[in-house]
Design goal:
five-stranded antiparallel sheet; three-stranded antiparallel sheet; alpha+beta
Length: 150
């Protein structure tokens, strides 16, 4: 077996007994046959069926908030653990901090910016080891002052 043949893997979905899907890493060389089912590829190994991921919604069922992935726009699913920079004016999320070179980015929907902006900024702080300071309202300052006195 050549080196290329050893590395023929892909992630697919396996249906559990309860009907939910879970990711499965499939070795393509172990596949018995591939079939088209409702316009989707299905891989068969023995009695097991594995479904190719073809929609963002399918992967979102597997990679979600518990894994650090958030849908910031209808066209993406963002791993918040890798976010390094955020351009609020342009609505762009970057995965590298360096601004002097061309960087990959994804977008955040305008309607989601207000909701997710604090989460994005917190993620960037965690991912870049930067301390976030937030100006607190007077009411919150009073609450914290009371807690410190007790």
């Amino acid at each position: 077996m050549t080196k290329d043949e050893q590395n023929m893997y892909m992630t697919v979905l396996e249906r559990r007994d309860d009907g939910t899907m879970q990711p499965y890493t499939l070795n393509l060389l172990e596949v018995d046959f591939i079939e088209l089912e409702n316009r989707h590829l299905v891989y068969y190994i023995g009695q097991n069926k594995y479904y190719q991921i073809t929609k963002l919604q399918q992967i979102q069922e597997v990679l979600n908030e518990t894994n650090g992935f958030v849908s910031l726009d209808r066209i993406n699913l963002v791993n918040m653990k890798n976010v390094k920079d955020y351009d609020e004016k342009l609505g762009k999320i970057y995965f590298e901090k360096q601004q002097d070179k061309e960087r990959n980015f994804t977008t955040i929907a305008k309607i989601k910016q207000r909701l997710f902006s604090p989460l994005i900024k917190r993620a960037i702080a965690n991912n870049t080891d930067v301390q976030v300071t937030k100006k607190l309202s007077k009411a919150k300052q009073q609450v914290f002052s009371q807690l410190e006195k007790e």
